[in-house]
Design goal:
alpha+beta; 27% helix; globular
């Protein structure tokens, strides 16, 4: 496959994004809600407010360790929460609405190929120079439209995160929903041929991913084919708008 220079690709991504609106909205607080006001059972671990993330710093735009979502996405997630709570789980949120300033921070970090502080934890199998080319970092994110959430399950019996066989924001095929199985049928295959380091997940770990996925799909969310933790409301209300308000308590 022909390699594309990261700077050139980034320029193309930015130009594509120009066709969609990026703005601050004076009516933001009427369009968005604090997620825990709607889903009080949710546990928050907002990774970009802290330093344990692939950058290694608090990310621009995260003024408070809270999760914001559009009203519509939050209501749908409440239905998901009610379902998994009945099964003995709670939702654990890593990220929800993400301002454009945060995405811009990711881009600046990715352009600095010398900063590899967090490589052992999040992208040990990749050279940082390929992050644009392989679309781990992009100039636009669906999170910025306000109806996308990154999450996992928390087991109320063990009082631990459910074992998904991989960490949030792991850059690699091991994060794909079809890794070692077929997410459409729920069948575990054990096929780990896409893993450059020969990593694998167990049948139980794959099944755990499917519990989360199926609950999200039943309540109006669609998955991403590269991240088992990432879901977007199918009927997102602001599909052409990238917001740039900070994540803050209102």
């Amino acid at each position: 496959m022909k390699k594309i220079a990261p700077v050139f690709l980034l320029s193309c991504l930015i130009c594509i994004g120009c066709a969609r609106e990026i703005h601050k909205d004076v009516d933001f607080h009427n369009k968005f809600v604090i997620l825990t006001d709607i889903v009080p059972d949710a546990i928050l671990e907002i990774r970009y407010y802290g330093t344990y993330n692939f950058v290694g710093d608090r990310i621009d735009g995260y003024d408070h360790p809270i999760a914001l979502l559009t009203n519509e996405a939050a209501k749908a997630l409440k239905e998901v929460s009610d379902e998994v709570v009945a099964q003995g789980y709670r939702l654990k949120i890593y990220d929800a609405y993400r301002p454009q300033d945060a995405v811009d921070h990711f881009v600046r970090w990715a352009e600095d190929v010398s900063d590899i502080r967090m490589k052992p934890y999040f992208y040990p199998d990749l050279d940082k120079s390929v992050l644009f080319e392989q679309e781990y970092i992009m100039a636009k994110s669906g999170h910025t439209r306000g109806s996308t959430v990154d999450l996992t399950l928390f087991d109320m019996t063990t009082e631990k995160e459910v074992d998904m066989g991989g960490t949030f924001d792991w850059f690699g095929p091991e994060s794909h929903p079809d890794f070692c199985g077929n997410p459409e049928t729920g069948q575990y295959t054990g096929d780990n041929s896409k893993s450059p380091a020969g990593r694998s997940i167990t049948e139980e770990q794959f099944r755990n991913r499917m519990i989360l996925r199926n609950a999200m799909l039943r309540h109006g969310f669609k998955p991403l084919d590269s991240e088992w933790w990432h879901f977007t409301l199918k009927d997102e209300p602001y599909g052409d708008t990238y917001f740039n308000h900070p994540v803050y308590q209102f």
